Structures are given as structure tokens and as C-alpha cells.
Backbone:
């Protein structure tokens, strides 16, 4: 891939795709995280004297319909404050933008445009016509072949990776291509079905696969243990049994020995510690128990590389948060190179305040999972294709 930092951007019309899909509350940006992440990229282009245009999506509007609730106006305002310069928001940006060198403007929500999600070629060409250089910098949307992420890269005169995307791909790639062993993955969360391919792929690449949440419940059931009313996908029991038998790889899969159960998830629900074989017919497994958490933490201490996606319990409820807390602390305390990603994982990292002790936190949810599956992300593929072909659109 071509790299933005290697290009001379002076006076160039530079169109940058970022992920500024920040939470908005009462018309204001509620978390600066995604905005502060892009500041070095934008500063880098502005310092070079580029004419900077920034694209992003926000939420899931209906294409072709302007929706004031999903306007990027609050983002433009907050980004202006953070960059300490004026950033106009351009509503009809596809008709043309006039940005002087060293200045920056924000395009209104790309998902207002018909054809964005279908990667419509005409729309991608209109985006490409705005610029001399297209910069893809949004890892979190790189798994989507949309007009603003992949299509535009085919037609822009030059298409390259931005520093944020390049850094994230480098960190994840290095950790998984040639990992320091043992390589230990933690895959938790609600459903096996959303992580089926990740589980298959990781079981062939990692030394140990630690499971949690509804995924672990399904595997416990596949091992023949009664799980009462726990969240599990009974249609995937055969898959889970195959995973345990090593049909997809040789990773060892340690199963929980103790669990925290309750009959409901009500705010006043109290957890009961049980051996995994003693779960009652009316109970649900909602967290791993302390003995299991200590066992998993020990494995993480001995790891060379850790990949973490998904909580191992209902960590949003204080009664069932301890297991995920122990895992978060163990990942942070381990001397291993650690990478973590996914929406709920990021929330857990924040809740347990371990972010500054994890080696690489991926900004992507779906993109992170597809990366772990070993898939080529469409937006990255578009940049790689361009790097190997000199002719725009060829
Ligand atoms: P995911 O989006 O698939 O990573 O799932 C994350 C969600 O799984 C979180 O909201 C957790 O509360 C939930 N979860 C984790 N463990 C369990 C469990 N044992 N039973 C029910 N839900 C769980």
C-alpha cells in the first residue's frame, strides 16, 4: 500500500476517509476518543499545506434522506475545538469543494448519499473527482466495501493508507504473522454464530483458546454438561463439539471449572458460585468463577502474545463482572504483547481502566474480527490493488 506520509501533499486536494462515528448526546459529541485519534493524520496533512477534505459516516441513516439527528455538525464543532481551527461542514460536498491550502473542511455524513453502502461506481467516481489524493485512514470501516472506503480508492488519481490505518494494520499484522508464543486468544461474548469463522481460524493458529460468555456455554453444553437456562446456541452444539475435538486446529481449549449463576439478570439478582457440573435447571451461567478466572489469568501470565475479543461474563452487571475484570487485569499485567478489540471489549477495557497497559487496542469491531479470521479487508485490498497497478480504475 502507498503511505500518506511518503507523499508530497503541498497544494494537493486530499480527501481523507476517517471514522468519526462518535456517540452524540443532546447535540454534542459524548466521547472524544475517535476524534482525538485522527488529529495526527489531519495535522500531518495540514502541516504539509494540503487542501484537506474529510469524509465519515455517522450512525445508520436512510440513504438519500437528510436527517438532522445524524448530521456531522456536532463532530465538525468538536473537531474544530480540538484542532483549534475552523472546520466548515459542507452539506452538498459532492457538487464540489473549495478548500485553500492548509485549510480543512468536513463533508456531511457519507451515508446520506445514495449508493454509499452498495459501493455504487458513479458515486465513487464523484468522490474521486474531488481529490488528487485519497487517503483511507479508518480501520473500523475497512471491512466494508462502501463507496467512501473502497470504491473511491479505485478511481482517485492516487490512493494511499493514512497513518492511523497503517499503524493499526502493522500492529495487528505483526502480532499474528509471527507471534511470540505461546499465542493465547480469549474469545467471549454472547453468540457463537457471530464469531464462528474467528473461532475456526484462531483454533488453527493459537496455542490456547480461552472461551467465555454464551460461546463458552455452548461449548460446555457440547461437552455434555447441563447448562440450565444459560444463553447458548443449541443449533451450534455440533460445531462446538467439533471445535473441542480439534476439527479446526490444535489449540487447547480450557473449560471453566466454576461459574457464577443466577435465575435472572434483574438489577438485584445475586450470583451463586457453582461447580460447572452443578448448574440448576432454572439457572443461567452469567460469569466464570474465581478458580476459573485464576486459572485463565495464569495462562495469560505465561503467554507471549494475547488476542482478546469479548467479555467472559455479563460485565455490565456488577454481580457478574468479576471474571471479565480478572481477565482484563491479567491481560494488562501479562508481559505478553496484547491486542484487544471489539465494541464490548473496549467498553470492558474502559470499565476496568486497563487501556494504558494493553499493547494495541484495535478501533475496529467487525474489522478486527475479520482481520482475526484472516480475511482481506476490502478497503485494504483496494489500496493494495492500486499500489500494484499504475492506471486509475484499472
Ligand atoms: P458480543 O457482542 O458477542 O461480544 O457479546 C457481548 C455481550 O455478551 C455482553 O453484553 C455481555 O453481557 C454478554 N454476555 C457475556 N457473557 C454472557 C453470559 N454468560 N450470558 C449472557 N450474556 C453474556
Residues:
Amino acid at each position: 500500500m502507498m503511505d500518506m506520509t511518503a507523499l508530497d501533499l503541498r497544494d494537493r486536494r486530499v480527501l481523507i476517509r476517517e471514522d468519526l462515528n462518535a456517540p452524540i448526546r443532546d447535540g454534542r459529541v459524548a466521547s472524544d476518543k475517535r476524534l482525538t485519534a485522527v488529529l495526527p493524520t489531519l495535522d500531518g496533512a495540514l502541516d504539509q499545506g494540503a487542501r484537506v477534505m474529510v469524509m465519515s459516516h455517522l450512525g445508520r441513516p436512510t440513504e438519500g434522506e437528510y436527517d438532522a439527528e445524524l448530521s456531522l455538525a456536532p463532530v465538525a464543532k468538536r473537531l474544530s475545538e480540538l484542532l483549534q481551527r475552523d472546520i466548515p461542514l459542507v452539506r452538498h460536498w459532492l457538487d464540489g469543494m473549495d478548500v485553500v491550502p492548509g485549510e480543512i473542511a468536513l463533508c456531511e455524513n457519507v451515508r446520506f448519499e445514495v449508493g454509499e453502502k452498495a459501493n455504487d461506481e458513479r458515486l465513487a467516481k464523484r468522490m474521486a473527482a474531488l481529490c488528487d489524493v485519497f487517503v483511507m485512514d479508518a480501520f473500523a470501516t475497512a471491512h466494508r466495501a462502501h463507496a467512501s472506503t473502497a470504491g473511491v480508492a479505485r478511481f482517485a488519481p492516487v490512493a494511499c493508507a493514512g497513518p492511523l490505518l497503517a499503524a493499526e494494520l502493522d500492529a495487528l499484522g505483526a502480532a499474528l504473522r509471527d507471534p511470540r508464543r505461546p499465542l493465547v486468544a480469549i474469545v467471549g461474548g454472547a453468540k457463537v454464530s457471530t464469531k464462528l469463522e474467528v473461532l475456526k481460524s484462531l483454533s488453527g493458529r493459537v496455542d490456547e483458546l480461552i472461551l467465555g460468555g454464551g460461546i463458552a456455554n455452548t461449548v460446555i453444553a457440547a461437552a455434555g454438561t447441563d447448562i440450565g437456562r444459560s444463553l447458548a446456541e443449541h443449533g451450534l452444539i455440533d460445531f462446538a463439539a467439533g471445535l473441542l475435538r480439534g476439527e479446526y486446529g490444535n489449540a487447547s481449549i480450557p473449560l471453566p471449572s466454576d461459574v457464577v449463576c443466577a435465575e435472572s439478570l434483574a438489577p438485584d439478582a445475586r450470583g451463586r458460585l457453582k461447580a460447572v457440573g452443578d448448574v440448576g435447571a432454572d439457572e443461567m451461567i452469567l460469569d466464570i468463577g474465581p478458580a476459573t478466572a485464576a486459572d485463565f489469568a495464569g495462562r495469560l501470565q505465561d503467554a507471549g502474545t494475547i488476542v482478546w475479543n469479548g467479555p467472559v461474563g455479563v460485565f455490565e452487571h456488577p454481580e457478574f463482572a468479576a471474571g471479565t475484570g480478572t481477565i482484563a487485569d491479567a491481560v494488562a499485567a501479562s508481559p505478553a504483547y496484547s491486542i484487544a478489540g471489539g465494541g464490548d471489549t473496549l467498553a470492558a477495557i474502559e470499565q476496568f481502566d486497563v487501556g494504558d497497559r494493553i499493547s494495541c487496542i484495535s478501533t475496529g469491531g467487525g474489522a478486527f474480527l475479520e482481520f482475526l479470521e484472516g480475511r482481506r479487508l476490502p478497503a485494504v485490498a483496494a489500496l493494495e490493488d492500486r499500489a500494484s497497478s499504475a492506471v486509475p480504475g484499472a
In short: The two ends are 16 Å apart (CA to CA). Residues 189-191, 194, 213-214, 217, 231, 285-286, 310-311, 313-314, 316, 342, 344 surround adenosine monophosphate (CB under 6 Å).
